[in-house]
Amino acid sequence: MAVAGLMTMAPVASKASLIFYSDRPSFDAAEPLLSIQSFNSANLYNQSYVFEANGLNSATNDAIFAAGSILPGLTLTDPQPGSQTQALIVYGGGPVGSVSVGDAWFDALDLSFTPGVYAVAEDAFANTAASASFAGSITEEVFSGTKSLGSETLSEALGGSMFFGVASTTLPITKVELIWDGNGDGVSFVSNIAFGTAAAVAPEPSTLTLSALAAVLLGLGIAVPIAGGRHNRKFSVLWDGRVGQNLVRSEGSPPRSVRWRSG
Known about the structure:
The protein is mainly beta.
């Protein structure tokens, strides 16, 4: 029977595919209306930089970042902090014109996402938080769980910065790791982190199989409830931790203002 044959067929093979973007306008055009994490609400106490506890996320509530400063789902971590608990550095200078966060111990900086997302972008540069950004390169490796989906290496000129943008067409991105590849010690800093669900994501193999099965059953006159996929409506939130009005815009409708509440 056609239905039985369809139910026993093998699922379509899935292979991770990454699309990299080298500038923010191109990334924004392809992956619009994502959430953007800014660190400009950080209290630097009139210093050029301060140290921050490892594992910066939405639960952070300290002298530097008040509760609600970090978007839910994002965590910044130094993966090799050793015995140091203050393993991150929050820097008010640099070439990107906004506050940045980096790993304080010259190894790597991880951006983790729970749940996984399909598009990530950030401004990045490297220095020691006491000089102009270095001339050199940073490698960004993209993971889904423990599986590496691929990587990209970009170079910056002395005093400059770089833009990393990536979208996955199949597997969700759960971590992006940045490593300074230049000579000498260098802290990898990031700011203006955009993340969320990509504008167009290929259906998962199970979705294709179930859709085909539903089509056959409907052709036989059998009523089948069909579960919907991801919402088509996308939202954009510019979040910098300030208490007050934040603009939220859904695709196809004008911006509207909402008041975020913490606690």
